[in-house]
Amino acid sequence: MIIFSLPFSLVIVIVSGAMLGKLVAESGAAQQITTTMMKIFGTRYIQWALTATGFVVGIPLFYNVGFVLIVPLVFAVAYQNKLPVVFLGISMLAALSVTHGFLPPHPAPTALVGQFHADMGKTLLYGFMIAIPTVILAGPVFASTLKRIKSEPLETFKPPSLPEDQLPGVANSFISALLPVALLATQPAGKAGAAIEKLGIKRVREILALKMRDKINALIVKDKALEPEAASIANVEKLTRFVRDLYLLCTNFVNFKDLYDGDEPAVFQCGTLYLDQRSCNLCLTVEDVGKHAAMAGMAGAYLAYCDCVRKGTGEKMSILAIFSQGDDDNLMAGRNGVFYDRKGRDYDATITRIISNPISLRQAFWSPYKKVSRLIQEQIAKRAATADSDANAKLAKVAQTVANAGK
Asked: What secondary structure, in 3-state letters, does 281-346 show?
Protein backbone atom coordinates (compact mmCIF):
# COMPACT_ATOMS: atom_id res chain seq x y z
CA MET A 1 0.00 0.00 0.00
CA ILE A 2 3.00 2.33 0.44
CA ILE A 3 3.57 2.71 -3.29
CA PHE A 4 0.07 4.16 -3.87
CA SER A 5 0.74 7.02 -1.44
CA LEU A 6 3.98 8.10 -3.13
CA PRO A 7 4.46 10.94 -5.61
CA PHE A 8 4.31 9.83 -9.23
CA SER A 9 8.02 10.49 -9.80
CA LEU A 10 8.99 8.12 -6.97
CA VAL A 11 6.63 5.46 -8.29
CA ILE A 12 8.49 5.68 -11.61
CA VAL A 13 11.79 5.13 -9.75
CA ILE A 14 10.50 1.98 -8.02
CA VAL A 15 8.84 0.50 -11.10
CA SER A 16 11.85 1.23 -13.31
CA GLY A 17 14.12 -0.40 -10.75
CA ALA A 18 11.96 -3.52 -10.73
CA MET A 19 11.95 -3.68 -14.54
CA LEU A 20 15.72 -3.27 -14.72
CA GLY A 21 16.16 -5.96 -12.08
CA LYS A 22 14.04 -8.35 -14.14
CA LEU A 23 16.25 -7.68 -17.16
CA VAL A 24 19.39 -8.36 -15.11
CA ALA A 25 17.89 -11.62 -13.89
CA GLU A 26 16.60 -12.94 -17.21
CA SER A 27 19.53 -11.91 -19.39
CA GLY A 28 22.14 -13.83 -17.37
CA ALA A 29 23.88 -10.65 -16.20
CA ALA A 30 23.68 -11.78 -12.58
CA GLN A 31 25.37 -15.08 -13.46
CA GLN A 32 28.08 -13.19 -15.33
CA ILE A 33 28.65 -10.90 -12.34
CA THR A 34 28.95 -13.91 -10.01
CA THR A 35 31.40 -15.67 -12.29
CA THR A 36 33.52 -12.54 -12.66
CA MET A 37 33.60 -11.94 -8.93
CA MET A 38 34.72 -15.54 -8.33
CA LYS A 39 37.58 -15.06 -10.78
CA ILE A 40 38.65 -11.77 -9.18
CA PHE A 41 38.58 -12.89 -5.54
CA GLY A 42 39.59 -16.50 -6.04
CA THR A 43 38.70 -19.56 -3.98
CA ARG A 44 40.43 -18.28 -0.84
CA TYR A 45 38.21 -15.21 -0.63
CA ILE A 46 35.13 -16.82 -2.07
CA GLN A 47 33.01 -15.52 0.81
CA TRP A 48 33.90 -11.91 -0.02
CA ALA A 49 33.17 -12.60 -3.66
CA LEU A 50 29.60 -13.66 -2.82
CA THR A 51 29.19 -10.64 -0.54
CA ALA A 52 30.26 -8.27 -3.30
CA THR A 53 28.03 -10.10 -5.77
CA GLY A 54 25.01 -9.82 -3.47
CA PHE A 55 25.72 -6.11 -2.94
CA VAL A 56 26.05 -5.33 -6.65
CA VAL A 57 23.07 -7.46 -7.73
CA GLY A 58 20.97 -6.32 -4.75
CA ILE A 59 20.99 -2.70 -5.88
CA PRO A 60 18.66 -3.15 -8.88
CA LEU A 61 16.88 -6.31 -7.70
CA PHE A 62 14.24 -6.56 -4.97
CA TYR A 63 15.19 -8.95 -2.18
CA ASN A 64 12.82 -11.75 -3.17
CA VAL A 65 13.96 -11.67 -6.81
CA GLY A 66 17.63 -11.54 -5.84
CA PHE A 67 17.19 -14.40 -3.40
CA VAL A 68 15.56 -16.68 -5.97
CA LEU A 69 18.18 -15.71 -8.53
CA ILE A 70 21.42 -15.94 -6.52
CA VAL A 71 20.70 -18.75 -4.05
CA PRO A 72 21.04 -21.37 -6.83
CA LEU A 73 24.43 -19.82 -7.65
CA VAL A 74 25.42 -20.20 -3.99
CA PHE A 75 24.47 -23.87 -4.18
CA ALA A 76 26.57 -24.27 -7.31
CA VAL A 77 29.63 -22.68 -5.64
CA ALA A 78 29.10 -24.82 -2.56
CA TYR A 79 28.95 -28.00 -4.66
CA GLN A 80 32.03 -27.02 -6.63
CA ASN A 81 34.22 -26.03 -3.67
CA LYS A 82 32.84 -28.47 -1.04
CA LEU A 83 31.97 -25.65 1.41
CA PRO A 84 29.00 -25.30 3.81
CA VAL A 85 26.03 -23.61 2.18
CA VAL A 86 25.18 -21.60 5.30
CA PHE A 87 28.72 -20.22 5.45
CA LEU A 88 28.46 -18.94 1.89
CA GLY A 89 24.78 -18.02 1.83
CA ILE A 90 24.74 -15.73 4.89
CA SER A 91 27.27 -13.38 3.30
CA MET A 92 25.29 -13.04 0.11
CA LEU A 93 21.89 -12.75 1.84
CA ALA A 94 23.19 -10.10 4.23
CA ALA A 95 24.21 -7.96 1.26
CA LEU A 96 20.81 -8.43 -0.41
CA SER A 97 18.95 -7.56 2.79
CA VAL A 98 21.00 -4.43 3.52
CA THR A 99 20.67 -3.03 0.00
CA HIS A 100 16.91 -3.66 0.05
CA GLY A 101 16.53 -1.77 3.33
CA PHE A 102 19.02 1.10 2.93
CA LEU A 103 19.38 2.01 -0.74
CA PRO A 104 17.01 3.48 -3.34
CA PRO A 105 15.31 2.50 -5.65
CA HIS A 106 13.94 -0.05 -3.18
CA PRO A 107 10.46 0.81 -1.85
CA ALA A 108 11.22 1.62 1.82
CA PRO A 109 14.06 4.15 1.36
CA THR A 110 12.34 5.64 -1.71
CA ALA A 111 9.13 6.11 0.28
CA LEU A 112 11.05 7.87 3.05
CA VAL A 113 12.61 10.21 0.50
CA GLY A 114 9.13 11.26 -0.61
CA GLN A 115 7.66 11.58 2.87
CA PHE A 116 10.53 13.65 4.28
CA HIS A 117 11.18 15.58 1.04
CA ALA A 118 14.79 14.44 1.16
CA ASP A 119 17.39 14.55 -1.58
CA MET A 120 17.60 11.24 -3.45
CA GLY A 121 21.35 11.52 -4.16
CA LYS A 122 22.25 12.26 -0.55
CA THR A 123 20.00 9.46 0.64
CA LEU A 124 21.87 7.05 -1.63
CA LEU A 125 25.26 8.37 -0.42
CA TYR A 126 24.35 8.06 3.26
CA GLY A 127 22.89 4.65 2.54
CA PHE A 128 26.23 3.46 1.16
CA MET A 129 28.06 4.85 4.20
CA ILE A 130 25.87 2.77 6.52
CA ALA A 131 25.36 -0.24 4.27
CA ILE A 132 29.00 -1.17 3.62
CA PRO A 133 30.10 -1.66 7.27
CA THR A 134 26.77 -3.32 8.02
CA VAL A 135 27.27 -5.80 5.22
CA ILE A 136 30.79 -6.60 6.40
CA LEU A 137 29.67 -7.30 9.97
CA ALA A 138 26.47 -9.16 9.11
CA GLY A 139 28.06 -11.00 6.21
CA PRO A 140 31.64 -12.35 6.25
CA VAL A 141 32.38 -11.56 9.92
CA PHE A 142 29.22 -13.19 11.25
CA ALA A 143 29.31 -16.03 8.71
CA SER A 144 32.81 -17.03 9.87
CA THR A 145 31.21 -18.23 13.13
CA LEU A 146 28.89 -20.54 11.16
CA LYS A 147 31.52 -22.38 9.16
CA ARG A 148 31.12 -25.55 11.20
CA ILE A 149 27.41 -25.84 10.42
CA LYS A 150 27.06 -28.57 7.82
CA SER A 151 24.13 -28.46 5.42
CA GLU A 152 23.65 -30.45 2.28
CA PRO A 153 21.01 -29.02 -0.09
CA LEU A 154 19.00 -31.36 -2.26
CA GLU A 155 20.16 -32.19 -5.76
CA THR A 156 17.05 -30.45 -7.10
CA PHE A 157 18.47 -27.11 -5.95
CA LYS A 158 21.52 -27.47 -8.14
CA PRO A 159 20.98 -24.60 -10.59
CA PRO A 160 20.84 -24.82 -14.35
CA SER A 161 23.37 -22.29 -15.62
CA LEU A 162 23.58 -20.65 -19.02
CA PRO A 163 26.53 -21.47 -21.29
CA GLU A 164 29.26 -18.83 -21.24
CA ASP A 165 28.74 -18.04 -24.92
CA GLN A 166 25.13 -17.01 -24.11
CA LEU A 167 26.04 -14.67 -21.24
CA PRO A 168 26.24 -10.90 -21.79
CA GLY A 169 29.57 -9.18 -21.58
CA VAL A 170 31.17 -8.33 -18.24
CA ALA A 171 30.96 -4.57 -18.86
CA ASN A 172 27.34 -4.72 -19.94
CA SER A 173 26.43 -6.83 -16.91
CA PHE A 174 28.01 -4.45 -14.39
CA ILE A 175 26.67 -1.36 -16.16
CA SER A 176 23.12 -2.79 -16.13
CA ALA A 177 23.31 -3.63 -12.43
CA LEU A 178 24.84 -0.28 -11.39
CA LEU A 179 22.74 1.90 -13.71
CA PRO A 180 20.18 2.78 -10.95
CA VAL A 181 23.03 3.98 -8.74
CA ALA A 182 24.35 6.27 -11.44
CA LEU A 183 20.92 7.67 -12.26
CA LEU A 184 20.00 8.35 -8.64
CA ALA A 185 23.38 9.80 -7.74
CA THR A 186 23.20 12.29 -10.60
CA GLN A 187 19.65 13.39 -9.81
CA PRO A 188 19.68 17.14 -9.14
CA ALA A 189 18.81 18.16 -5.62
CA GLY A 190 15.58 20.04 -5.11
CA LYS A 191 16.12 23.78 -5.03
CA ALA A 192 15.33 25.27 -1.64
CA GLY A 193 12.68 27.97 -1.73
CA ALA A 194 11.53 27.21 -5.27
CA ALA A 195 7.88 27.75 -4.35
CA ILE A 196 8.60 31.11 -2.65
CA GLU A 197 10.69 32.33 -5.57
CA LYS A 198 7.56 32.72 -7.72
CA LEU A 199 6.32 35.52 -5.44
CA GLY A 200 9.25 37.77 -6.24
CA ILE A 201 11.70 39.37 -3.84
CA LYS A 202 9.53 42.48 -3.36
CA ARG A 203 6.46 40.51 -2.25
CA VAL A 204 8.57 38.31 0.01
CA ARG A 205 10.01 41.36 1.76
CA GLU A 206 6.51 42.83 2.20
CA ILE A 207 5.31 39.59 3.83
CA LEU A 208 8.32 39.50 6.15
CA ALA A 209 7.75 43.14 7.13
CA LEU A 210 4.21 42.36 8.30
CA LYS A 211 5.58 40.07 11.04
CA MET A 212 2.64 37.74 10.61
CA ARG A 213 4.39 34.95 12.49
CA ASP A 214 4.38 37.01 15.69
CA LYS A 215 0.72 37.94 15.22
CA ILE A 216 -0.32 34.33 14.59
CA ASN A 217 1.64 33.16 17.64
CA ALA A 218 -0.10 35.80 19.74
CA LEU A 219 -3.51 34.60 18.58
CA ILE A 220 -2.54 31.01 19.37
CA VAL A 221 -1.58 32.04 22.91
CA LYS A 222 -4.95 33.77 23.35
CA ASP A 223 -6.82 30.72 22.10
CA LYS A 224 -4.83 28.52 24.44
CA ALA A 225 -5.77 30.72 27.38
CA LEU A 226 -9.46 30.26 26.54
CA GLU A 227 -9.17 26.47 26.39
CA PRO A 228 -10.59 25.86 29.92
CA GLU A 229 -13.56 28.12 29.19
CA ALA A 230 -14.27 26.36 25.89
CA ALA A 231 -14.08 22.97 27.63
CA SER A 232 -16.56 24.17 30.26
CA ILE A 233 -18.97 25.35 27.57
CA ALA A 234 -18.74 21.96 25.83
CA ASN A 235 -19.48 20.16 29.12
CA VAL A 236 -22.51 22.38 29.79
CA GLU A 237 -23.81 21.71 26.28
CA LYS A 238 -23.37 17.96 26.80
CA LEU A 239 -25.24 18.11 30.12
CA THR A 240 -28.06 20.11 28.51
CA ARG A 241 -28.44 17.54 25.76
CA PHE A 242 -28.55 14.74 28.32
CA VAL A 243 -31.29 16.51 30.29
CA ARG A 244 -33.29 17.15 27.11
CA ASP A 245 -32.83 13.90 25.20
CA LEU A 246 -31.83 11.06 27.54
CA TYR A 247 -35.34 10.44 28.89
CA LEU A 248 -36.81 10.59 25.39
CA LEU A 249 -34.18 8.14 24.15
CA CYS A 250 -34.92 5.65 26.94
CA THR A 251 -38.71 5.77 26.53
CA ASN A 252 -38.40 5.18 22.78
CA PHE A 253 -35.55 2.70 22.41
CA VAL A 254 -35.15 1.03 25.83
CA ASN A 255 -38.61 0.30 27.31
CA PHE A 256 -40.70 1.53 24.30
CA LYS A 257 -43.09 3.34 26.64
CA ASP A 258 -44.20 5.84 23.99
CA LEU A 259 -45.02 3.00 21.58
CA TYR A 260 -47.10 0.94 24.04
CA ASP A 261 -48.91 3.85 25.78
CA GLY A 262 -50.27 5.21 22.50
CA ASP A 263 -50.59 8.78 23.78
CA GLU A 264 -47.79 10.09 21.58
CA PRO A 265 -46.19 8.27 18.63
CA ALA A 266 -42.70 6.96 19.18
CA VAL A 267 -39.76 8.66 17.49
CA PHE A 268 -39.40 5.86 14.92
CA GLN A 269 -43.10 5.83 13.91
CA CYS A 270 -43.54 7.70 10.63
CA GLY A 271 -47.37 7.80 10.42
CA THR A 272 -50.55 5.70 10.05
CA LEU A 273 -51.67 3.48 7.16
CA TYR A 274 -55.41 2.98 6.51
CA LEU A 275 -56.08 -0.15 4.46
CA ASP A 276 -58.60 -3.03 4.42
CA GLN A 277 -60.90 -1.38 7.00
CA ARG A 278 -58.15 -1.10 9.62
CA SER A 279 -55.36 1.24 10.62
CA CYS A 280 -51.69 0.38 11.09
CA ASN A 281 -50.06 2.73 13.60
CA LEU A 282 -46.65 1.04 13.60
CA CYS A 283 -45.21 2.21 10.28
CA LEU A 284 -41.50 2.70 9.59
CA THR A 285 -39.68 4.39 6.73
CA VAL A 286 -37.54 2.09 4.58
CA GLU A 287 -34.66 3.21 2.37
CA ASP A 288 -33.94 -0.11 0.59
CA VAL A 289 -36.82 -2.60 0.54
CA GLY A 290 -34.70 -5.46 -0.81
CA LYS A 291 -32.03 -5.26 1.88
CA HIS A 292 -34.61 -4.69 4.62
CA ALA A 293 -36.79 -7.63 3.56
CA ALA A 294 -33.82 -10.01 3.63
CA MET A 295 -33.80 -9.87 7.45
CA ALA A 296 -37.37 -8.75 8.18
CA GLY A 297 -38.79 -12.28 8.11
CA MET A 298 -37.08 -12.98 11.44
CA ALA A 299 -39.49 -10.52 13.13
CA GLY A 300 -42.30 -13.10 13.06
CA ALA A 301 -44.88 -10.39 12.23
CA TYR A 302 -47.08 -9.78 9.20
CA LEU A 303 -45.24 -7.07 7.23
CA ALA A 304 -46.41 -5.10 4.22
CA TYR A 305 -44.10 -2.86 2.19
CA CYS A 306 -45.88 0.05 0.54
CA ASP A 307 -44.92 2.70 -1.98
CA CYS A 308 -46.47 6.04 -1.05
CA VAL A 309 -46.98 8.94 -3.47
CA ARG A 310 -48.34 12.38 -2.62
CA LYS A 311 -50.45 13.67 -5.50
CA GLY A 312 -49.98 17.37 -4.88
CA THR A 313 -46.18 17.41 -4.92
CA GLY A 314 -45.21 14.00 -6.34
CA GLU A 315 -43.22 13.30 -3.18
CA LYS A 316 -42.45 9.58 -2.76
CA MET A 317 -41.49 7.37 0.13
CA SER A 318 -41.39 3.67 1.03
CA ILE A 319 -42.83 2.43 4.31
CA LEU A 320 -43.18 -0.81 6.22
CA ALA A 321 -46.54 -1.40 7.94
CA ILE A 322 -47.02 -4.02 10.67
CA PHE A 323 -50.46 -5.67 10.75
CA SER A 324 -51.32 -6.95 14.24
CA GLN A 325 -55.13 -7.50 14.08
CA GLY A 326 -57.61 -9.23 11.76
CA ASP A 327 -56.61 -11.63 9.03
CA ASP A 328 -54.80 -11.51 5.71
CA ASP A 329 -57.53 -12.82 3.42
CA ASN A 330 -57.81 -9.52 1.54
CA LEU A 331 -54.17 -8.39 1.81
CA MET A 332 -52.13 -8.80 -1.35
CA ALA A 333 -49.62 -6.98 -3.51
CA GLY A 334 -51.33 -4.20 -5.45
CA ARG A 335 -53.91 -3.42 -2.74
CA ASN A 336 -54.37 0.34 -2.27
CA GLY A 337 -54.79 2.42 0.86
CA VAL A 338 -54.13 5.86 2.33
CA PHE A 339 -51.11 6.82 4.44
CA TYR A 340 -50.89 9.88 6.72
CA ASP A 341 -47.47 10.99 7.93
CA ARG A 342 -46.78 12.63 11.31
CA LYS A 343 -47.51 16.06 9.83
CA GLY A 344 -50.97 14.95 8.68
CA ARG A 345 -50.14 14.90 4.98
CA ASP A 346 -51.87 12.18 2.96
CA TYR A 347 -50.27 9.79 0.46
CA ASP A 348 -51.67 7.19 -1.92
CA ALA A 349 -50.23 3.88 -0.67
CA THR A 350 -49.89 0.63 -2.64
CA ILE A 351 -48.68 -2.68 -1.23
CA THR A 352 -45.62 -3.86 -3.20
CA ARG A 353 -44.37 -6.76 -1.10
CA ILE A 354 -45.65 -8.90 1.76
CA ILE A 355 -43.81 -11.01 4.32
CA SER A 356 -46.52 -13.34 5.57
CA ASN A 357 -46.73 -14.50 9.19
CA PRO A 358 -49.81 -15.21 11.35
CA ILE A 359 -51.41 -11.93 12.42
CA SER A 360 -53.26 -13.31 15.48
CA LEU A 361 -53.67 -16.50 17.53
CA ARG A 362 -56.94 -17.22 15.75
CA GLN A 363 -55.29 -16.97 12.35
CA ALA A 364 -52.33 -19.05 13.55
CA PHE A 365 -54.77 -21.76 14.70
CA TRP A 366 -56.79 -21.83 11.46
CA SER A 367 -53.83 -21.25 9.13
CA PRO A 368 -52.95 -24.98 8.61
CA TYR A 369 -56.59 -25.82 7.88
CA LYS A 370 -56.85 -22.92 5.45
CA LYS A 371 -53.75 -24.13 3.66
CA VAL A 372 -55.22 -27.65 3.38
CA SER A 373 -58.54 -26.23 2.16
CA ARG A 374 -56.75 -24.03 -0.35
CA LEU A 375 -54.68 -26.99 -1.56
CA ILE A 376 -57.85 -29.10 -2.04
CA GLN A 377 -59.52 -26.27 -3.93
CA GLU A 378 -56.49 -25.91 -6.17
CA GLN A 379 -56.43 -29.65 -6.89
CA ILE A 380 -60.17 -29.67 -7.67
CA ALA A 381 -59.71 -26.67 -9.92
CA LYS A 382 -56.85 -28.40 -11.72
CA ARG A 383 -58.90 -31.59 -12.20
CA ALA A 384 -61.88 -29.56 -13.43
CA ALA A 385 -59.66 -27.66 -15.83
CA THR A 386 -58.19 -30.94 -17.10
CA ALA A 387 -61.63 -32.52 -17.52
CA ASP A 388 -62.89 -29.42 -19.31
CA SER A 389 -59.90 -29.49 -21.61
CA ASP A 390 -60.49 -33.18 -22.39
CA ALA A 391 -64.21 -32.57 -23.05
CA ASN A 392 -63.44 -29.70 -25.38
CA ALA A 393 -60.94 -31.86 -27.20
CA LYS A 394 -63.53 -34.64 -27.66
CA LEU A 395 -66.17 -32.17 -28.84
CA ALA A 396 -63.74 -30.70 -31.31
CA LYS A 397 -62.92 -34.19 -32.59
CA VAL A 398 -66.62 -35.10 -32.99
CA ALA A 399 -67.33 -31.82 -34.73
CA GLN A 400 -64.42 -32.43 -37.07
CA THR A 401 -65.73 -35.95 -37.85
CA VAL A 402 -69.27 -34.67 -38.58
CA ALA A 403 -67.91 -31.90 -40.78
CA ASN A 404 -65.79 -34.36 -42.78
CA ALA A 405 -68.76 -36.84 -43.17
CA GLY A 406 -70.79 -34.34 -45.19
CA LYS A 407 -68.06 -33.93 -47.83
From this structure: CCEEECCCHHHHHHHHHHHCCEEEEEEEECCCCCCEEEEEEEECCCCCCCCCCCCEEEEEECCCCE
